[in-house]
Amino acid sequence: MKKVQLLIFKYGAAKYGVPVEYVKGIIGNTKLGKLSDLGRQSSLLIYVDGIQIAIIADEIIKISELEAKQPTSVTGQGNFQIWRL
Q: Can you supply a Gene Ontology BP term from the record (predicted)?
């Protein structure tokens, strides 16, 4: 089993994690425009294989090291790993 460092965040009632090496920035108190006001939510800026996305999070909890029960190596372009905890 391989150990993986995840940045753990909460969205709604569920907890998720993304590999720490994918996270390139965090923007707090995100507001997307006139139609959506996210209040105190944050955006995680994720960059993998030349593609960048933003993930909206209600709360960023911590960085945690977990053991993967399945292989975590993913090949190909634009493969993002988001773990539900």
A: chemotaxis
Tokens 């150990």 — which residue?
A: 3
Tens of pLDDT along the chain (85 residues) come to 778 899 999 988 999 988 898 899 888 765 555 545 556 788 888 888 888 888 888 888 899 888 877 655 555 555 677 778 7
Report the predicted TM-score, pTM, of the whole model to 2 decimal places: 0.71
Rounded distance, CA 39 to CA 32, Å?
10
* The two structure tokens encoding residue 15: 């907890």
Do 16 and 28 touch, CB atoms closer than 8 A? no
